[in-house]
Specification:
single chain, 174 residues, alpha/beta, UDP N-Acetylglucosamine Acyltransferase, domain 1, 7-stranded mixed beta sheet, 5-stranded parallel beta sheet, 2 helices, 16% helix, globular
Amino acid sequence: MLDLLRPTSILHLVKVARFHVYSHALPRRDLTAGPGLRMSPTASLRNGSRIALGRDVHIGERCCLWAGDASGRITLGDNALLGPEVFITASNYGTRPGTPIMDQPRIEEDVVIGADVWLGARVTVVAGVTIGDGSIVGAGAVVTRSLPAGCIAVGIPARVVAWRDGRPLEEGRS
């Protein structure tokens, strides 16, 4: 108990509380969410006014939903399930040589996660991606391109390896 009264411990608690308000409480107040939202208190949000969540969405521990500063939106459909440490961003930096990354213009594109989508632990979804309804993305995948509805995708970059309805992989390709 004595350790909690040390000035450094008190300062740390204040910093943790401030971060929680900055990355969770304030942005959550601005987001649009349907009924039944279950969001871990350790989730990190940016620009909540550009985040829209359907009904019965579950956002796991230490997930990050970072909408763009100017225009990039994040939308999750009904019954979307995000495992722990999923990272979704609607904003990215440019990569022109000769200009420091931090000085590059931001590239903002909407991210749309369909209804009944399951993103496994530590999945990363980058700006401009749409994941179709009913899809599953395996743990640790990095989604750099849009995925069709009903697929099962894994890997870096994520690629379709099966279909939820059991049809052969070749039938789903266009």
